[in-house]
C-alpha cells in the first residue's frame, strides 16, 4: 500500500497535475478533495469530465465515473459493485486509491481508448425501431462510418509508427544536398584531371555506353524475373482452376434432382427448427435473465433484517415443496410412471437436437468468418505480391493435404450426424404420436373420473416448482455471498481501524517533533550560511594569493633562465674573440659565479617564504575541502527529504553531519 501511495503522489506532482503533495498531505485529504483529484485525473483522460463535483449531485457523479471506468475496462475487485458505488459516494480511500493507481499507470493508453470510444462505442437501437426503413438505412450508414473511422485510424497509426517524420525528412534532404554538392565538386575535379589525358572524349563516350549497357542488363534481368514470377503465378492459377473444375465436376456428379431435393429438405428442416424452436427459446431465456437482472438492480440495498426475512421465506417455501413431493410420491399413479419414460426420451432427444443445432450454428459462424477473412485477403492482395517458392510450396501442399483429409473426416461425421438426426426426428415423431395417444387416453380417464385437466395442472405445478427451485438456489447463493461480503467488509474495517490507531498517535507526536526540528533547522541554517560566507571569502582570498605567488614564481624562473643563457653567450663570445687561446678568463668566471650566487640567494629566499607559508596554505586548502563536503552533504539531505517526505529526520541527520564536520 505504501508503494502504491508513493507512486500516486509522484505522478500527481508531475505534469500536467502539479499538485505538490507529500505522503502525509495526500493521506490526510478530505473525501471531497480526494473525489475532486480523481475527477481531475479522469478529466485529463477525457476532457468532457472537467467539472467541479461540488456543483453535481453525488448520484450523477457516481454514474458518470462508473460509466467512464467501465468504458476504460476497469475491473472491480472481488465483485464489490455495491460497495464500490458506496465508496465512490463517500470518497473512501480503499476505493479511490486503487482507481488512481490504475489510471496513473496507463494515462496515454487510456487517453487513446477514451478518444476512440467517442466514435467506436455503437449506439444501442431497439430492434423494433430497426424495422423502419429510414432508421435502418441511417443505422447502416452509421455502421459504415464507424468502419471507415477504424480504417482511417489504423492507417494514421501505421503512418505514425512507420518512422517517418518531417524533421528526419528535412535532415535527409539536407544531407542529400550536401552529398550532391560534394559529388558536383568531385566531378569537376575529375573533369580537370581527365582533360589532360589524350582521347578523353572518346574514353568518356565508351564509359557512358558501358554504363548504359549495364543498366539495360539490370532492367532486362528484372523483366526476366518478373516474367518468371508471372509465369509461376499463371501456373498456380491454372492448378487452382483445374482443382476447382475437378471439385465442381465431382459435385455435379452427385447433383441429381433427388439428392438436391433431399439436401434442401434437410436444410429447410434445420432452419425451421432454428427459427421456430431454438432461437425463440434462447430469446425467451435472455429476456427472463434481463428481467431478473433489472429487478435485482432496481431493488434497494438490503440490510441484515431483509436478509433474515428472505431466508425465513425460503425455508417456508422449501418445506412446502418437500410436502408436495412427499404427497406425489405417496400417490404413485401408474399412468404417470408410463409417461415418465416418454418424457425422459423426449428430453434426451430435445437435448441432442439443441446440441446439434448449436454445433451447426458454430460451424456456420466459423464458415462466415473464414469467408470474410478470405474476401479481405483477396481485396488486400495484389498480383505483384511475392511468389511462393519451392520449399514453402511443398509445405503448403502438405498442409492442404492434411486439411483435405480432416475435411473428409468431418464431412463423413456430418453425414453420419445427419443420418442420426433423421433417425432421431423419426423417433421423436413416433414418440409424439404415442404421447398424443396416451394423452387422449389420459384425458378420457380424467373425464370418466371427473377430474379433467388434472395432468396439465400437475405438469404446470412441476414446471413452476422447478423454476422456483432454481430461482431460490440463485437467491440463496446471492444472499450468502452478500452476507459473507458484509462480514468480510466489517472485519476489514475493524482491522484497518486497529492498524491505523497507533500510526495516528505516532503521527501526532511526529508532527510536534517536526515543528521543533523546523525551528532548530532555521537556527542551524543561519549559522551555516554565515559560516559558509566566511569560508567562501577566505577561500577566494587564498586563491588570489596562490595565483599571485605562482605568477611571481614563473616570472622568477624566466628571469633566471634568461640571465643564465645571457651569461653563457657572453662567455662564449669572449672565448671566440681570444681565438680559443684562453677558454675562460678570470673575469668571466668571476662574473658567472657572482650571477649564480645572486640567483641562488634569491631562490633560497623564495623557498624559505614558501616553506613558512606552506602550513597556512595547506590549512586553508583543508578548510575548502571541508566546505565542499558540507555542500555535498546539504545536497544529499535535500534529495533525501524529497524522496522520503520526512523533514525532521533529514534535518537531524544534517545537523549531525555539520557537527561531525
TrEMBL record:
Residues 3-124 form the IFT81 calponin homology domain. It is found in: Cytoplasm, Cytoskeleton, Cilium basal body. Keywords: Acetylation, Cell projection, Cilium, Cilium biogenesis/degradation, Coiled coil, Cytoplasm, Cytoskeleton, Differentiation, Phosphoprotein, Spermatogenesis. Residues 369-388 are annotated as: Disordered. GO terms for biological process: cell differentiation; cilium assembly; intraciliary transport; spermatogenesis. InterPro entries: IFT81, IFT81_CH, IFT81_N_sf. Residues 166-251, 407-474, 500-559 form a coiled coil. Gene3D superfamilies: Intraflagellar transport protein 81, N-terminal domain (1.10.418.70). GO terms for molecular function: tubulin binding. Pfam families: IFT81_CH. Its main location: cytoplasm. It comes from the Eukaryota. One of its GO terms (cellular component) is intraciliary transport particle B. Component of the intraflagellar transport (IFT) complex B: together with IFT74, forms a tubulin-binding module that specifically mediates transport of tubulin within the cilium. Binds tubulin via its CH (calponin-homology)-like region. Required for ciliogenesis. Required for proper regulation of SHH signaling. Plays an important role during spermatogenesis by modulating the assembly and elongation of the sperm flagella. Belongs to the IFT81 family. This is Intraflagellar transport protein 81 homolog.
